[in-house]
Amino acid sequence: MNLSDPFTLCITSLVALSLLGLPIGHSMICASILYLYAAGLDMGTAAEQLLNSMFTSYTMLAVPLFILAAELMNSGSMTIRLLNFCNAIVGRFRGGLAQVNVLQSLIFAGMSGSAIADAAGMGKMMQKMMTENGKYTPSFAGALTAVSAVMAPILPPSIPLVIYSLVSNASIGFLFLAGILPGLLICISQMAIVAWSARRQNFPTEAPVPLKHIPGITIRALPALMLPVVLLVGLRGGVMTPTEAAAVAAGYALLVSAVIHRDVGFRELYASLQSAGRMTTSVGMLIAGALVFNYVVTVENIPNSISVFLLSFDLTPLTFLLIVNIVLLILGCLLEGTTILLVIVPVLIPTAQALGIDMVHFGVVVVFNVMLGLITPPYGLLLFVVTRVSGAPMRAIVRDTMPFLIGMLTALALITFIPGIVLFVPRLFGYSG
């Protein structure tokens, strides 16, 4: 290893700083500045990249606004009303409470775009309900909460798809539409596995909600149920941009919680803003570090070098996608998802484009892979979240996630090798890819 080479020195320092416990975003910034110094380049370029990439990016505003929308929904009664609606629909079946967990994740995904927000908000509530009176084991409740939360970043609005759009220049609107069928595929596979587990383990049934009560429950949940509809209609109708849609989501959540339901006051609003601010700062530092590091990667011409190397093997598009799946699934076990999207994926995009792979299809496949990393050890961020909430040992939770993980890997194979599943809905709205 030649440490006199600026890029080698950059990578070595990045790994060393990360292993010493410095957050990955800060590590990338420090390593990139060291590269600029060693290469004899202007170190002020790091600040210039931040200014040009972050502060002039209108798209970036969507991330904190979607985070704020999720926080506002969790602080009010919107989540409870959604939970009651889901229970009225599927709670009467065997394993009904587990089915409610999956269904609420599907609906909540259409409003938050964040797996962590789903698991920490509605998921926390679902775990408490599922483990009450020993109905379900804490490990199964935690595992189901983790795997069902994976739907949130696939379905619109999706924060990871916004970040992918940032590095690929693919249309956010079409990416959102492309995530609909894959997200539903995950939901169907998880509900099928719950139904199979319910018969095998004799899960309890819940008291059925009388049919005469369902219209009232639906009306109370209607304001929350309408948010995904408002966002998609606004996006595809050309009424608002994705960033404006994020602002609408946050404003709508505040309007419903504070004015219609009247359960969010100034104290709750302040707490939501604080929480959203902390999460946004964390994500923002990661994006900032990745943008500066990507400049280093571009200067070294790494993406084109990798593209030439891979194309020399005469790969077909399907072979390349298979390799990408394997690489990203392995990296997902070790790295945080946003880091993969911002650092690894830009290196793969030139090869995908050279092979004629549709960027919208590629984006959904990539995000699907990255989100599976949230439930795969040893990093598995969602596993840590539900372990802390449920109190169950990590080993037991990982064991109970395995059937669901197999189902999601099957769904990943389908969307990888059958692009029509991903592109069907966007093409209905005029996408020509």
Description:
This protein has 22 helices and no strands. The longest helix is centred in the middle third of the chain and has 34 residues. It has one domain. With 433 residues, it is mostly helical. α10 packs across α18 and α16 packs across α18.
Helix and strand arrangement:
Layout (H helix, E strand, L loop, with lengths): L5 H14 L4 H15 L6 H9 L8 H14 L2 H13 L5 H17 L2 H6 L1 H10 L6 H12 L9 H10 L3 H7 L1 H22 L12 H23 L5 H19 L5 H34 L2 H10 L5 H16 L4 H18 L4 H14 L8 H10 L3 H24 L1 H10 L5
Helix pairs in contact: 1-2, 2-15, 3-15, 4-14, 4-15, 5-6, 5-13, 6-8, 6-9, 6-12, 8-9, 9-20, 9-21, 10-18, 10-19, 11-22, 12-21, 13-14, 15-18, 16-18, 17-18, 17-19, 18-19, 19-21, 21-22
Short structural summary:
The protein is mostly helical and 433 residues long. Helices cover 76% and strands 0% of the residues. It has one domain.
Q: Secondary-structure element sequence?
A: HHHHHHHHHHHHHHHHHHHHHH
User: Beta-sheet strand percentage?
Assistant: under 5%
SS-derived structural category: mainly alpha
Mean pLDDT: 81
Tally of helical segments: 22
Task: Tag the structure with descriptive keywords.
433 residues; mainly alpha; 22 helices; 0% strand; globular
